[in-house]
Amino acid sequence: MELLEAVSSRISARAFLDTPVSKDIVYKILDHARLAPSGSNMQPCHIHAVAGEARERLIEKALAYAAEHPMGNVQSEYQSSPRNFINPYKSRRFACGMALYSALDIDRKDKAAREKQLMQNFYFFGAPVGLIFSMHRSLMPGQLGDMGILMGNVMLIAREYGLHSCAQGFWQDVQPAIREVLDIPEDYYIYNGISLGYLDENHAANKVNPGREPVEQFTEFVGF
Ligand SMILES: Cc1cc2nc3c(=O)[nH]c(=O)nc-3n(C[C@H](O)[C@H](O)[C@H](O)COP(=O)(O)O)c2cc1C
Around 164, how many Cα atoms within 13 Å sit in the side-chain half-sphere? Predict the structure, then answer.
């Protein structure tokens, strides 16, 4: 697959087929993705790739943890949403949620239906493989950019193997459960996940087109 085709065909997939993904394919994706640049080549990210029974246990523990610590009420060390949420970012986030709910025919006032959809995050949206990204706390938040680049590589290289993905900041809120199941030490911060699998092409959740701002909106060309 050409690079630009991979870039334009990547979407945040929120419904996957239950077709298994072999360890060999996951390994190959990570073997290419590891060539991502990182500050001073520190290569700060750690990945846990989970499938099968480990995935099941993770889901079970995360659900149990969330039942006792409702999502959204968790005090995050590194807050993922700003306290003072200004536009245009606030409105873009709103539009992003609305695009998904509209594709799924969920009324925005239907809190139960919205929560049910949010819960899909716990199940990696049905993907058979989940990747959990962590980093030693001493490198937080400075090296988070490195994590973003590595995640971007994973999601694009996944396209080469016919796979789709969805990044999931969601997992930050259930860190203790992940830590327990995957035996991740306290001095590692769990920041993101990626669902990885084969796209359920017919599912409405995958028909969302969140759109993007044009180049002129976010770029000043200086000195050309
Ligand atoms: C770091 C990061 C974290 C994200 N976390 C979540 C998440 O927890 N759940 C989710 O459904 N989508 C998540 N997304 C997906 C974004 O909502 C999505 O990238 C954005 O709406 C643009 O849509 P697209 O990826 O389909 O182009 C995340 C994306 C990124 C880059």
Answer: 22
